[in-house]
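Exercise 3.2. Students should predict the tertiary structure of the chain below and write it as C-alpha cells, then compare their answer with the key that follows.

Predict this chain's 3D structure.
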Amino acid sequence: MKKYLIAHDLGTSSNKASLFSTEGKLVRSYTVPYDTHFFHKNYAEQNTEDWWRAVCTATKKIVEEIDPEDVLAISFSSQMQACIVVDKDGNALRPAIIWADQRAEDQAKQLESKVGYNRMYELNGHRVSASYSIEKLMWLRDNEPEIYAKTYKMLLAKDYIICRLTGKFVTDYSEASGTDAFDLKALRWSEEILETAGISMDKMPELHASTDLIGHLSEQAAEALGLTTRTGVVCGGGDGPCSALGAGSIESGQMFLSFGTSSWIAGTTDEVFLDKEKTLICFGHVIPGKYMPCGTMQAAGSSYSYIKNALCKEEEKQAEMRGESVYDLLNQQVAESPAGAKGLIFLPYMLGERSPRWNPHTSGSFLGIKMEHEKSDYIRAVLEGVAMNLDIILNAQKERVDITELVLTGGGAKGDVLAQILADVLNVTLHRLDHVEEATSIAAAVIAGVGIGIFKDFSVIGQFVKQVNTFMPNQDNQEVYRKRKLCFEKGYQCLKEYYDLDSTM
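Answer key:
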C-alpha cells in the first residue's frame, strides 16, 4: 500500500499543499490564495487565520482520494523574516508582519549603532535591515507595548502553523538565520544581539534542525486537516534554503538560481561564507551541518509582472481570448527587441533592494529612453535589468567558487526567452529542472521523509527532480551586455543621491 508525504509551501500570495508518494511522485497539489495588506507606504501584513484556513482547505483537497492513515508526515517550506507574536495558547495577538514590511528602519539603525555593522554581519551572516524579524519585534515593543507585553513567543510563518498543529513553539536553523538574532556559527540565539536589542531570550522559539520531528497532529488539528493523529509534523525550513535542496544543491559548491517574485543565486557550503563587499547573506541550510550563502534581490518576477500590468493590457485581453498565458505573448515581444534593448536600461528596484544594493530607498527606473524605443524594448529591458542585477550577485559568489553552470528553478523560470537572457547576461550555462514551480515543495517532502526515517539521506532528491533543458550563453551578445552592465552600474550610482532625497519627501 502506498504511503504519502505532504508538503506545504506557505508563500507570500498563497499556500500550496502537495501530496507526494514516498517514491518521489507528485500525486496532486492544491493552492489557496490569500491577501497581503499594504499600507503606510512600507507596511505589509497578513492575517494568520488566512494561513490556517489555507492549510486546512488545501490539505483536505489533496487527501480526498486516499486513506488519511497513509499520510506519514507533513513538513513545510515557508516565506521567511516574518514576525508573528502569540500568547501562551498560541493565539496570534495581531496580524503577521511579513518579510516585505520595512517599517522598522529606526530600530534597525539603533541595533546597528549599538552592535556595529561588521559585528552583526559576522555574528549572523546578515546585515542589519528592517526586513528581519527581530527589528520588527523591536518595533512592536516600541509602538505597540500592550501587544508586546502579552507576547509569549515570536514565531515565523510556518512555525505559527506548526504551533496550531502540535502546540509546540519552535523554529528551525534556516528560519532562525533570517531573524537577525541568530549566532550562525554556533547555531543558537545570539545573547549579544538580543541583549542589545532589548528583547528577552524567553520570547524566542525553541531551535531545531529542519528534519526534527516536532510531534504529531493534535486531535483538533487532525480533524481540521482531514488526517489522523498518526501523521508526524517535521519542522521544515525557510523557502530560500528549501529552494537549495529542491534544486539539488546538497553538496558544497553546487550553485543554483531561483527566479520567482524575488530571485536569488545561492549554493551549499560546509561553513559560513561572507563575501568581502557584504553583498551576500548566509543562511543555515535545511541540511544539518551545511550553510547557504545567498544573494536575494527583491523584485524579479514582480518587475515582469509590473510591466505587464502597466503596458500590456492589450496582450492580457488577447491571452484571455486565446486561452494562453499572457507571458507567452510578452515573450514574443521580447524576442522582437535585440540584445541590449536598443540601449534602454531598467533598474529593477521596485520594492527597494536587498542584494546587491542593500538600500531600502531605491526605486525602479528606465534610463536612456529615446524616440526609437517601443513596447518590446521596455519589456526586454526589464528582464535584462533583473539579469544584470543578478550578475552582481553572481560575481560575489565567485569569490568562493568558480561558477560556469547554474541550476535554474522557480516559478518564473519556465519561459525559454527569460532563461536565454539569464544565460547570456550571466555568461553561464543554465540547466532548468523539470518541476521548476515545485522545488520548495519537493524540498519540504524530502525533509519530511528524512525526518521520519523513510529516506536515508538527502541524496533521494534525485528521485524527485531532473534537469530537462540546457541554455548555453550566446557569445555574440557578450560585448553588448558587457557595455550595458557598465551603464547599469553607473545609472544606480548616479541615482543614489536622488533616492536619499526622495525618501525624505
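Discussion points: The chain has two domains: 4-235, 245-505. The domain at 245-505 is CATH 3.30.420.40 (Nucleotidyltransferase; domain 5).
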